[in-house]
Amino acid sequence: MGFSLERHEGIASGIRRIFDEELARAIDSLEGRGPADRDAAVHDARKRLKKARAAVRLARAGLGRDVQRTETTALGGAARRLSGVRDAHVLLETLAALEEHATALPAAAVGDLRAALECRRDELHAAALQDGDVVGEVTAQIAAVRERAQDWPLHDEGFGSVAKSLQRIYRRGHGAMDAAIEQGDDESWHDWRKRVKDLWYALRILEPIAARQLKGMVAEADRLSEVLGDHNDIAILGEALEEHASALDKGQLELVRSAIDRRRDELRLAAVPLGRRLYAEAPKRFVRRTRSYWQTRSAQEAAEAIWLDPVLAGRIRELLAARESADAAGKRRIAAQLRGLGVRITDLAERVARRPGGFAAQDFDTLVARGVIRIGGVPAPGDRPAAPPVPAPQKAQEPAGGDGLRLPSPVDLVRGSAGLALDAARRMRGKLGL
Q1: In this predicted structure, what is the pLDDT of residue 115?
Q2: Torsion angle of alpha carbons 246, 251, 253, 256, nearest 10°?
Q3: 45 vs 48: CA distance, rounded Å
Q4: pLDDT recorded at residue 347
Q5: Cβ neighbours around 68 below 10 Å, total
Q6: Helix (H) or strand (E) holding 47
Q7: What does the pLDDT read at residue 380?
Q8: Residue of 307, 306, 332, 308 whose CA lies nearest to 319
Q9: Alpha carbon separation from 65 to 53, 61, 70 (Å, rounded)
Q10: For residue 7, what are the CA distances in angstroms to 37, 182, 362?
Q11: b/e code 155-191 from CB counts within 10 Å (16+ = b)
């Protein structure tokens, strides 16, 4: 699975899964089950923590402000404890990138600054090695947050659970853009970058609800976050230059300052049109549009679902249940009966994980719960599919026959487990807001 909603997945289930997966992978990286290189593993863990925090922000309306702040603060603190050595590496990478973009940058000045930054990196690396418990402590922090998430008050599977949060994320990004352009200081531009990251991650989570429509917006947010990330890196390099100004003579210092300022201006010039396009809508209108995609997703899933008459659904499920305990001859007879009903088990089996013994009644129930199989009449265009009345379950009768295979009559099939399948479908529809 990945950092986005899965097919037929509700909001609450999706955010819970995404959050848990990102924290689990962060722990894996810190405990040596991720990238082999230590610095790369720490960098991967930090990225995972950022993604997890973004998922919490998107769930803010459902979780409540206090829970959201508690968890984002805890994960932010964990990430900061891992930041030192990585940030020193980024400064060296930024200096190398500046050499590629700048002209007439004195090699001697760059060499002196690089030597100072390398010294700083080595000192931070040595300090990290001396404090050997940091990774273990951070891992324990992450594990504690992951455990708390099991009790989150997050249950709404519909779009309403994230609508307010998404509007807030978009509105804050729009405001941060205006503030950065108006104020012009590096801090306001850095704040804009953080807000763009929030939107980018939120859009990545929601993208599958309308991939074609949201893909361009995801790409635009990604590009803008890269530009603003480069801007933040060059601003930090400027701060580092001032810290190590004594390592350069006055003329060289001015040349490097000028190159940094020029590059910062270039990045700001590139960021503004990207931002204007990304935040072109009013926040409420943006959320209304995204909500409409969610509603259309429900209609699309209904159109792609396998619709079964209740009688047929009950018979299929009971045949599958009987097949699990049947002998080889019985399984062949059941397979023939299923084919006679027009059912291709191989088509259904492709939609679930493989299990020993093949597609079973439990898999059928899973497909009903996920909405892949829907029981009842096909709804008219524009209508919401409704579950038919659930018959009262009754004990199935044994059919006549001497082969020991018990198959209920068609009437009893409907009264039996068709009701269970319908009940599961009704509960899931309620969770998904269909």
Answers
A1: 84
A2: -160
A3: 5
A4: 82
A5: 20
A6: helix 38-58
A7: 74
A8: 332
A9: 13, 7, 9
A10: 34, 42, 19
A11: ebbbbebbbebbbbbbbbbbebbebbbeeeebebbbb
Helix, strand, coil distribution of the chain in percent, nearest 5: 75, 0, 25
Alpha helices by DSSP H, listed for 82-185, are 83-101, 107-130, 134-148, 160-183
DSSP-assigned states of every residue in 260-320: HHHHHHHHHHHHHHHHHHHT-S-HHHHHHHHHHHHHHHHHHHHHHSEEE-HHHHHHHHHHH
427 vs 424: CA distance, rounded Å: 5
CA 46 – CA 258 distance, rounded (Å): 32
C-alpha dihedral (42, 43, 48, 54), degrees to nearest 10: 130
- Burial of 425: CB neighbours in 10 Å, binned 0-12, 13-18, 19+: buried
Low-confidence ranges of the chain (pLDDT < 50): 385-422, 424-434
Tokens matching residue 148: 């708390």
Distance of CA 327 to the CA centre of its chain: 44
Distance, CA of 394 to CA of 78 (rounded, Å): 56
pTM given for the model: 0.75
What the chain holds in terms of domains, given with CATH numbers, is 11-297 (1.40.20.10), 305-432 (no CATH)
Note the pLDDT of residue 86.
67
Q: What is the dihedral of CA 48, 53, 58, 60, to 10 degrees?
A: 150
